[in-house]
Amino acid sequence: MVLVILDGWGENPATNHNAIRLAKTPVMDALWHAYPHTLIQASGAHVGLPEGQMGNSEVGHLTIGSGRVIRQELVRISEEVKKGQFKQNQALNGMAAKLLESGGTLHLLGLLSDGGVHSHINHIGGLLKWAAAKKLKRVCIHGITDGRDTPTNSSIGFIKTLQQQIEAAGVGELTSLCGRYWAMDRDNRWDRIEKAYLLLTQAGTCSKETAETVLTKAHSEGISDEFLEPVRFQPEYFKPGDAVVLFNFRPDRMRQLTSCLVNPNFSGFERQLIQSLDVVTFTQYEKDQPVAVAFPPESLDDLLGEVISRNGLRQFRTAETEKYPHVTYFLNGGMEKPYPGEDRHLVPSPKVATYDQSPAMSAAALTNGCVAAIRKGIYSFVVINYANPDMVGHTGDLNATIEAISCVDQCIGKLLSATGRMGGTLLITADHGNAELMQGADGRPWTAHTTNPVPFILVEGEQRKLAGLGGDIQLRADAGLADIAPTVLELLGIEVPEAMSGTSLVANNRAIQSTPTLV
After folding, report:
1. Fold exhibited by the domain 74-293
2. Which bin fits 110, alpha (ψ -120 to 50), beta or left (φ > 0)?
3. Which pLDDT tens digit goes with each residue over 149-163?
4. Which CATH topology does 2-70+299-511 take?
5. According to DSSP H, which parts of 252-377 are helical?
6. For residues 248-279, b (16+ Cβ closer than 10 Å) or e, as one string?
7. pLDDT of residue 180 exceeding 50
8. Of residues 43, 57, 154, 309, which has the active-site annotation?
9. Domain range annotation of the chain
10. 57 belongs to the catalytic site
11. Nearest Cα residue to 145 out of 244, 200, 225
12. Cβ atoms of 319 and 384 closer than 8 Å
């Protein structure tokens, strides 16, 4: 069985500014019309987020892999803010005690955004109130501007919100700003991270202009929030005896910057480790880092990969760099180590500034590697993620995204052929929407995710493992990403564990009498 995750491929009935409908997709079109299909929800309460909150890759893969709706970190931390419970947080309070003793400065570092994908600006307000309650006088805010999970030039509004939060708490000042392009890389482009690191850890010239003026000028020059060059407003920077709270709750795009700050064996670029720097991360970015974690991970059992492994079956996971953590770490519920019998294959993403310069990304090499794995005939379950719809969609370039979609469609054709020859079953879905909406209501490029549903197609192989149901299989319409794992297990003939609250997408599942076979 092969599970294809089309990252950022949502369903939108409108054609205008819809890269998916405007692209040539003969393979997906044919499969949609010829095989059992349905639309499934990938946002809001269906994936453990607030109602109306767009889904994202981390949440999507976590939900797919767990087979249940999990209360996501956005909801968990937001509830703590509303209840004023930061003051009871052990990691934060331990940091405050050290600061009061050392007389150091508290630095708050993270994405200024209400996108809810990596952070939420309301959490900063909670931190400022906590700092005031702990009588921490020197609080510096180092903001990362978004423009990717939010409208491209929306950061001025977040700066105004931040200023209101500072006034309400009576503590804090905006010390620096930097676009997420520099501070939140996840593809080992250390030249980008170094620019952010130098801003945070070394003295430099302060701008005489306000943040609003700096941003307005950047926007007028065609520089969106994502690409804002590092700028300093106050002279403070990280020093020995200081403390830092990294308030992004999503790990993948904060790992590199955190590693610079705390890893004594860091080798990405030449840097001097700041001694006696106390670091707290909102969530666990990586295991075994010398940091305190404010909101430790909640334990998850009986995940899809775990159940497959426990039944003695082999599995294969593959993606290019941009989405590799999602088919491994996130799909496995936040566990880095592979399960027994789980093989992984990473394909490097192209080294370009933005992916509209290379819409095909590494899809061809990724497909070839996956086809080779399928042909080995040793894997009962294969997972492949195509990053193109999401990563190119994030650039806001409609024509490039159309090209990306067409490329992925061709790759699906190759997977279809390879899976069919092995008598396997192909499941095609997505983790969230993106490429189906490329322009906002204001006429500006839309670079964020969407709340649209995503497709799910079940393509039965030549051995007709579904008891001969073939095209007569009926798929449920009232479904979400949590229903994918139970579907996979049922089609593999494996009992679905009670911990999975999802339900098989196959409506007439009583007719299924399959046994695990190799693809």
Report:
1. 3.40.1450
2. left
3. 999 999 999 999 999
4. Alkaline Phosphatase, subunit A (3.40.720)
5. 255-262, 304-310, 324-325, 363-376
6. bbbbbbbbbbbbbbbeeebebeebeebeebbb
7. yes
8. 57
9. 2-70+299-511, 74-293
10. yes
11. 225
12. yes
